[in-house]
Amino acid sequence: MDRAASEADLFAWRPPHAYLPGRTPRHPRDLFDPIRATVTEAMPDPGGSPAWRIGLDLLREGFFWEAHEVLEPVWMACPPNSAEKLLAQAVIQFANAALKRVMDRPAAAQRLLRLADDLTEEAFGRGGALILGLGRADLAGVRAVVSTESDGKNMHYNA
Fold it and tell me: Of 36, 20, 24, nearest to 150 (Cα)?
């Protein structure tokens, strides 16, 4: 991806395949840098960054490892001990759980799913009805991806 890509280009772009450790080639280290660079620690609302929105899209589309890579700087930019940081961590754990499920590691997927559920509950307990632009119903939709993607129907890889 071009480092000078426009925001529209960032939203339209998708990786050539979903990375599955041990099954598909790993992406170049800097592939996601243009997206990751859309969030900085000085941002007042990391949830408004393209990285947050693109990361959610990648998760919903079956790019689980990639979603984690894109969402991590959002989590890092959220204030310490905040509802936002907890929710960003929950979404990352949902992506991790989905990846483990696709990799046929159900015990790891269930452990990560429980962790994500706990983080979600704690986040909404602290932060109110909307956090990083998401409500509980939105998180239920994200969680559903973890349960329904295990058959690989929306996976973008060549195993």
Answer: 20
Name the strand (E) or helix (H) holding 10: helix 7-12
Which band of pLDDT confidence, cut at 50, 70 and 90, is reported for residue 3? Answer: low
- Residue 111 to residue 77: CA distance in whole angstroms: 26
Q: What torsion do the CA atoms of 90, 64, 154, 15 make, to the nearest 10 degrees? A: 140
The count of C-alpha atoms lying within 13 angstroms of the C-alpha of 31, restricted to the half-sphere facing its C-beta, is: 17
Asked whether residue 147 carries a pLDDT value surpassing 80, the answer given is no
